[in-house]
Design brief:
This protein has helices spanning 5-10, 27-35, 50-63, 83-93, 109-114, 126-135, 158-168, 182-190, 200-203, 212-220, 243-253, 258-261, 267-276, 299-316; strands at residues 16-18, 39-43, 68-73, 97-101, 118-123, 139-143, 173-176, 195-198, 226-229, 237-240. It is an alpha/beta fold. Strands 1-2-3-4-5-6-7-8 form an eight-stranded parallel β-barrel, surrounded by six helices. It has two domains: 5-209 and 294-316, Aldolase class I (TIM Barrel), CATH 3.20.20; 222-285, no CATH class.
Length: 321
């Protein structure tokens, strides 16, 4: 019932992708998503040691015989090693799908596609989606203002961006930012998307390695409990409202220099928050959909809920004009 250009392109059952999340998208979560019929994406920048990355890819292959992908973050500040080294690892280990983000993938498209790797490129605006198509990527994921991570500088919502991108490109389109359940899944398809990319919904699952305190915060949170920081450096990021984020926002407002801001948004503080539950002392990136997630579930149950209720919803919407 939910066969789209995306399911055909990737060889998956349902057009639902769990986007790569730093520290969280490890083999257990990735394989659970793929085994449930979607596409899990491993986050390569989680692993500073290349041997650890290789081992995690191999572990994912051992946990699922379904397709999965790996994220290739192209933003230089967020990389533990060269892009070429990661691509070499992907090719050696038999990765078939990558989710690229952070900068244009143009310099690497030929290298990846000659190795038989399909490329989904994540973008925050229509102009970047058109550029990605022009350089040869296989699909684009458009993320709106609501998303966790980096929504771009334009502050445009998914409701506006998804149909604009669907009309602007001929390749498959994924909708990201605010999608977390059956209603938002069906809405994305109605807007012209070929599938959805979700992150925050999969944090609140048993297979995710985030600390229980983070998951508890998530299911109790309201849609107003996130905020944008880092605008002053041209890289806005949606995070939960906590003391550290408020400090970063204050520094944004007075345009503090990057060297002063970096210790506040430090990845090590973020790691302590995600892994040790020290919620107030680190930057924790989650999307506005926190306000619509009220339960920690297994990945399998998330899929069964979305697909089952989406089928019912589609039948309900089969109305005469």
């Amino acid at each position: 019932m939910f066969k789209t250009r995306l399911t055909e392109l990737l060889g998956i059952e349902y057009p639902i992708i769990a986007g790569g999340m730093h520290l969280l998208s490890r083999a257990e979560l990735v394989s659970a998503v793929s085994n449930a019929g979607g596409l899990g994406i491993l986050a390569s920048t989680t692993f500073e040691n290349p041997d650890e990355l290789r081992a995690e890819i191999q572990k994912a292959f051992s946990l699922t015989n379904k397709p999965f992908g790996v994220n290739l973050n192209l933003f230089p500040m967020m990389r533990p090693r060269s892009i070429e080294e990661d691509i070499s690892i992907f090719i050696d280990e038999g990765v078939q799908i990558i989710e690229s983000s952070g900068a244009s993938p143009e310099p690497y498209v030929r290298m990846l596609q000659e190795a038989g790797i399909k490329i989904i490129h994540k973008v925050p605006a229509v102009r970047f989606a058109k550029k990605a198509e022009s350089v040869g990527v296989d699909a684009v994921a458009i993320v709106g203002f609501e998303c966790a991570g980096h929504p771009g500088m334009d502050d445009v919502t998914s409701l506006i961006l998804v149909p604009l991108v669907a009309d602007a490109v001929d390749i498959p389109v994924l909708a990201g930012g605010g999608f977390c359940d059956a209603r938002s899944f069906v809405a994305a398809l109605a807007l012209g998307a070929d599938g959805v990319v979700m992150g925050t919904r999969f944090v609140a699952t048993h297979e995710c390695n985030a600390h229980p305190k983070i998951k508890e915060w998530l299911v109790k949170a309201k849609e107003t409990d996130t905020m944008l920081i880092d605008r002053s450096i041209g890289l806005p990021m949606r995070v939960i409202k906590n003391k550290q984020a408020e400090k970063a926002l204050d520094m944004d407002m007075r345009k503090a220099p990057l060297e002063e801001l970096l210790p506040v948004i430090s990845g090590e503080l973020g790691r302590k928050a995600w892994m040790e539950g020290e919620i107030e002392t680190g930057i924790v990136s989650l999307g506005m959909s926190v306000g619509r997630i009220q339960e920690i579930m297994s990945v399998k149950d998330v899929f069964e809920s979305i697909i089952g209720k989406a089928k019912s919803l589609c039948r309900h919407l089969n109305l005469e004009a």
